[in-house]
Amino acid sequence: MPARHRRRTSGADGESRKRILDAAEDLFAARGFDATPTAAIATRAEVPKGLVFYYFPTKESILTTLIAERPSTEPLDDVAGLAVTGEPATALVNLDAALDRGGRRAMRTILWREADTHPAAREHLRTLRAYLQNVTVEVLRASAPLTAPARVLDSCATAWVAAMLSAAHIDRFRERDDRIEDLRGVARVVTAGLGALSTP
Amino acid sequence: MPARHRRRTSGADGESRKRILDAAEDLFAARGFDATPTAAIATRAEVPKGLVFYYFPTKESILTTLIAERPSTEPLDDVAGLAVTGEPATALVNLDAALDRGGRRAMRTILWREADTHPAAREHLRTLRAYLQNVTVEVLRASAPLTAPARVLDSCATAWVAAMLSAAHIDRFRERDDRIEDLRGVARVVTAGLGALSTP
Amino acid sequence: MPARHRRRTSGADGESRKRILDAAEDLFAARGFDATPTAAIATRAEVPKGLVFYYFPTKESILTTLIAERPSTEPLDDVAGLAVTGEPATALVNLDAALDRGGRRAMRTILWREADTHPAAREHLRTLRAYLQNVTVEVLRASAPLTAPARVLDSCATAWVAAMLSAAHIDRFRERDDRIEDLRGVARVVTAGLGALSTP
Amino acid sequence: MPARHRRRTSGADGESRKRILDAAEDLFAARGFDATPTAAIATRAEVPKGLVFYYFPTKESILTTLIAERPSTEPLDDVAGLAVTGEPATALVNLDAALDRGGRRAMRTILWREADTHPAAREHLRTLRAYLQNVTVEVLRASAPLTAPARVLDSCATAWVAAMLSAAHIDRFRERDDRIEDLRGVARVVTAGLGALSTP
DNA sequence: AATGAATGAGACTTCATTCAT
DNA sequence: AATGAATGAAGTCTCATTCAT
Fold first, then answer.
1. Distances (CA, A) of B75 to B100, B129, B172, C90
2. pLDDT per residue as tens digits for the range C58-78
């Protein structure tokens, strides 16, 4: 006997809509988009099946909405605050922590998994990468004592972004502590490299 | 009008089996496992639908077989040969090229996409990562003129592996040339860092 | 040209579900469970194929539901009323007629055919047999003038139940009239035996 | 890797044929005809799949052959020997034992299960029933001291055949000992009835 | 705005049977 | 006489989506 959904007096408007998106985010991340039936989304959201299609014309549009409305990383409002003058390595690690704090783990999983198939995800990823690169350059510039050529700064940022993304995505099955320890080491190497390639 | 398959008298042995695996590899990489119907595999392999299940009891087992039989990266038989004494940055870039040459791009795409859902893929990825880390350490040791503490070498390798994987996987939608240019820069930073953190 | 089903707005509640069970009952009885495609059930029920699985998650569950919901024999509400004092043979024949009237022929066919393979059917059959045995004992006790030892009554009931089941199941391919004629003879023998083994 | 069947030097001719029939008999009895794939028959017979169709043009013909060649009950060669003058009840129980000894349990299971769908099985069952009826009459006539009218003898035989078939088929899920105990009781009732309805 | 029965295309898989060797 | 790869029709089941209420 299917659990009747008592006519939800829709506390705040759009309450159901949010529940649907929440459910979809969880399920898409856990099983993948293709392997998630809309019926499962409705069940987990505790709304009737029909309501899903009332809010979203297609299953695809649930994904699109998720990508559009739920940032994988909140824009950092105080990049300068992350800098630690004279200790760029610490600053980099801070940056990773701040980004990790701000974002939605599930959304990142979804974005990468679906990037091959859904242009919106691909596009989002491109933007994200560029943003990370810029922020990293900023943090390094504000923290490193020396002047480095733009190209060197860029390469350092590329290395660090790769390390962060690797830790978050590729190494997502490893223990969190191990990943952070690895990141510290990489930060040291990158900033040492930055120092060596800068003019005093 | 369905293309009748004239009874293919198994020209070479295992010919059909190979065709099926080839087709699956291509399609899984292009659309993802879930989005690839077994019928599409049969069509692309130019074998009748039933034959797919003659060789592989389930769709899942096609994926498992692919992961077991088709290495994402051939083991490098001459790691030492990649070293360039005194020029570790060049050596690193060589390493990336060698790995890229040896492996199957499609398999890598598949492995990462399905890692969340298929344990076999996850396991394979773990092994791959460890292998890359080891090889990178070897190459650096053989190329760098100075003695670096093990921890530093490890961190450098971690950084480089992250860069290679990033370039191959995360940045797979960018132009190939751009990615290689980026890798060169990262190699320079990493080796500079290695030098700075080593004892002369 | 596939018969489009105009969207049947569930006239009476559970209407479609009943149609599906009806169709399944007929077809399972006629061809057997294994030989009945779910598509045939849908066609006969005049519902779209998908609806069958909306109501029943698996084909097996259609059978289980049938066994659970559709009695092969209605419980007799007036056993005493079947008794004919002094004429136990007549009473026995009455009993058979009453049971035959109350029950669903198709369900019995299904139950016996699937008993080897479906535990639910086997269990149901066991219960049915015990019920028939009890009812027969009651009818005999109420109709026979003499006092018979419990063991004798039991054996008479066993004989009669065997005869009824044989007539209904094993001899189901013979003419109905022949079977009834046979039953009358058996009733006479059994009650004569009962008389002979009773104390006056 | 499929178990290669070493080219059986076909010890006695028809060895494979027998193995196939044996396997089919077991499997049809256990799972039913429809639920038994020809591949399973080949596997259990330890012959290659193709060989099944070398000996039998269709799956159906395996069943037909089984029914034609493998009697569910061997014809009793010494019916008279079963009689026990003056103790018809004992004689009846002897008869059941003799029949049970002679026959193939599996074949009986198959025959009843497939009777609804396969005419050959139905026909065989009809013949079997008639045979049992005749033999029972013979045994009773040879054992009972009194002369009974033919109709009474017939009814007694019908009752006994029903009891035997019930015990063998309908009660096949009960304990064997219980069934035999029941049969003894029924034999007593039937012979008592026979006595009561006979003229001295 | 909300609901859940209804719909049918299509997915994976099974299997009797064929046939070149 | 024997073999096992090949074939395709058909079966069970899933699911996005529609729609009357």
1. 11, 12, 22, 90
2. 999 999 999 999 988 888 888
What's the Å distance between residue D37 CA and nucleotide E14 C1'? Answer: 9
Higher pLDDT: B187 or C72? It is B187
- % pLDDT > 70, chain D: 93
Touching pair D, C by Cβ (3+ pairs < 8 Å):
yes
Does the CB of C154 have a partner CB in chain D at under 8 Å? yes
- Strand E nucleotides where any atom sits below 7 Å of a protein CB: 1-21
D138 token code pair: 């013979």
What is the per-residue pLDDT across B142-154, written as a single tens digit (0 to 9) for each?
A: 998 888 999 999 9
Give the 3-state secondary structure of residue D78. coil
pLDDT digits (tens, 9 = 90+) for C119-128: 999 999 999 9
Using C1' positions and the CA of C3, the closest nucleotide is E8
B196 contacts in chain A (CB < 8 Å): 192-193, 195-196
The span from the CA of C189 to the CA of C136, in Å, is: 15
Min Cα distance D25 → chain C (Å) is: 15
Contact yes or no, B with A (3+ CB pairs under 8 Å):
yes
D155/C185 Cβ within 8 A: yes
On the CB side of D172, how many CA atoms lie within 13 Å of its CA? 17
Contact list, B192 vs chain A (CB under 8 Å) = 192-193, 196-197
Q: Do A188 and B155 make contact, defined as CB atoms within 8 angstroms?
A: yes
Q: How many Cβ atoms from other residues are within 10 Å of residue B138's Cβ?
A: 18
Chain F nucleotides covered by protein, CB below 7 Å: 1-21
Q: Do C186 and D122 touch (CB under 8 A)?
A: no
Q: H helices then E strands: how many in chain A?
A: 9, 0
- Which residues of chain A lie closer than 8 angstroms to B154, CB-CB? 185
Bridge partners of C36, per DSSP, are none
d(CA C71, CA C103): 7
Domain A15-69 homologous superfamily, CATH? Homeodomain-like (1.10.10.60)
Of C117, C188, C191, the CB nearest to D32: C117
The integer distance in angstroms from the CA atom of C111 to the C1' atom of E8 is 33
Q: How far is C7 from chain D (nearest CA, A)?
A: 35
How far CA A171 is from CA of B115, B130, B187, C69, in Å, comes to 11, 11, 21, 54
Distances from the Cα of D112 to the Cαs of B124, D105, D167, in angstroms? 54, 11, 14
Tokens for A30? Answer: 């856990």
How far is Cα C118 from Cα C114, in angstroms, rounded to an integer?
Answer: 6
pLDDT digits 0-9 by tens, D24-83: 999 999 999 999 999 999 999 999 999 999 999 999 999 999 999 998 888 888 888 999
CA distance to A31, B73, B89, B111, B128, per residue, from B118 (Å): 10, 19, 36, 9, 16
Cβ atoms A153, B153 nearer than 8 A: no
Residue identified by tokens 């560029």 is A130
Q: How far apart are CA B135 and CA B161, in angstroms?
A: 10
d(CA D188, CA D179): 14
Which residue reads 């198959």 in tokens? D110
Q: Which structure tokens are listed for C86?
A: 């002094």
Chain A residues touching residue B115 (CB < 8 angstroms): 173
Q: Which sequence spans correspond to the domains of chain D?
A: 15-69, 79-196
With a cut of 50, list the residues of chain A below it in pLDDT: 1-12
